[in-house]
């Protein structure tokens, strides 16, 4: 007799009431100008002598209220400024440093995404976040929010509402298991008649969880609507292996992993888990892991019990943190936890076309998977092992010093992923 292992989604429905590394931070200061303020007591001849010795050219302007001037130079402004600062005729001199706007997209609910940019409101800790705006600015510049060009992210879940206003155009592969079995009065699924064959076009989301995960990973940014995904330039491959109750058998899950790998997904995000170590699931993970980095939820047990697939060696296990950068009470803690990401009270897209706040290591997982996709997009010819090493090296060490069972190497950081 066929035994169906039911794998639950790793979201908590409690409290529900609710590319290319482009023009990064290149020049630090303007190569042609320096800012100098002369000492009040210096005479005009002392000033011009100091300026001549340092090699100053014409004065281009002054700075209101500061009494400093902007002057053209032919040499390295840092060297010129250093030379000027040795003169008694100079109050101070410095290069004309370049500040860059940080890319805050215009999505109306972006301010609620503490996991991406935490300003300390709502009882949070400022900067307990993945530094998303800083990372996006380093990748794309301060005002560009491309919707394409990133590494493909595969998601095994309850499906996704591909027509959601904040996911429009993002889902480039859509499939799911043919049948979850017979639904008796909407109460009981009979898995004995389930068919785990993957069928194209069957990724509609009758639960909501998968749409939420998809939005965290890659919702459209700067479109004047809703939220912003971490890797908003990544296309999504969606495979539905979990039913309307958020459960699914390993046969379908394993098939989805194979399907997503075949679509060319560089990262496969799995916000699901079971305490059962299935040979089938293990084999599917092993086969896919040569081409894709697989990222999965550590689990919501609030204990140290291993959760699969997260606990397989090939899979990055993701714990959940809150707006204080502390481990969520529900988040599984054990030696296999590899990284952490925001997972408490996360706002994202929902299958009713709207938006919803939910919690879970399910929500942490797509944050980490999307950061991994940013890395894969920067290094497209590298291996999953390389991307994984970059992911764990580019974290902020939180909870106990060093790698610890609560948050692994630390909470992921998009700026470090984008620049290191
Ligand atoms: Ca920050
Ligand atoms: Ca949006
Ligand atoms: Ca693991
Ligand atoms: Ca730590």
Automatic annotation (TrEMBL):
Every Fervidolysin-like N-terminal prodomain domain range: 21-96
Superkingdom field: Bacteria
PROSITE patterns per UniProt: PROKAR_LIPOPROTEIN, SUBTILASE, SUBTILASE_HIS, SUBTILASE_SER
Signal peptide: 1-24
All residue ranges annotated as the Peptidase S8/S53 domain in the record: 150-410
GO terms under biological process: proteolysis
Keywords of the record: Hydrolase, Protease, Serine protease, Signal
GO molecular function: serine-type endopeptidase activity
Active site, renumbered: 157 (charge relay system), 209 (charge relay system), 362 (charge relay system)
Family label: Belongs to the peptidase S8 family.
Protein name: Uncharacterized protein
